[in-house]
């Protein structure tokens, strides 16, 4: 028996790693040849957090600007979200305000985690952990972390952090 079912949205620029994050979380495998998301993709996964059994319905949104218009319709009913950027691409962080304007256009606010992806690519990093954290605090995110879908570092933990926040608001 489930204690909660949560709809969450994952959004951010194209190429930031949203789909590989979702696939890694779902399968615990790194799938390097994932195709660009056209519109929206959907996955589910049951997890246990602090003794609570939770089903996550994960909506992965295409990051190209031409798909941004569908986000407000699909976000209805979402209980939380992950805004993902690529630590090796400064423009993916620079577009955060554009993404937040889409999300903040809704009536009720949801907890959002800012997630820096591709942390295994330290050698070509353009955005420091400190800078990401500073922006997360300034923009009012519920939490911040970095992850690597390639190594699996902080993938499950990122979803569990968001789930804990949603459970506390439930």
Q: Can you describe what's shown?
A:
There is one protein chain. With 170 residues, the chain is α/β, with parallel strands linked by helices. It has one domain: P-loop containing nucleotide triphosphate hydrolases (Rossmann fold, 3-Layer(aba) Sandwich), CATH 3.40.50. It has helices at residues 18-27, 71-74, 90-94, 96-103, 129-138, 155-169; strands at 4-11, 40-49, 52-61, 80-86, 112-117, 143-146. The chain has a 6-stranded mixed beta sheet with strand order 2-3-1-4-5-6. α5 links the parallel β5 and β6. It is globular. It starts with a strand and ends with a helix.
Strand order of the largest sheet: 2-3-1-4-5-6
| The CATH homology group name | P-loop containing nucleotide triphosphate hydrolases
Return the CATH architecture: 3-Layer(aba) Sandwich
| Main sheet properties | 6 strands, mixed
Percentage of residues assigned to helices: 25-40%
The number of strands is 6
Helix count from the secondary structure assignment? 6
Secondary structural class: alpha/beta
Q: Topology as H/E string?
A: EHEEHEHHEHEH
Stretches where pLDDT is under 50 for at least 5 consecutive residues are none
User: What is the end-to-end distance?
Assistant: 17 Å
Radius of gyration: 15 Å
Q: pLDDT average, as an integer?
A: 87
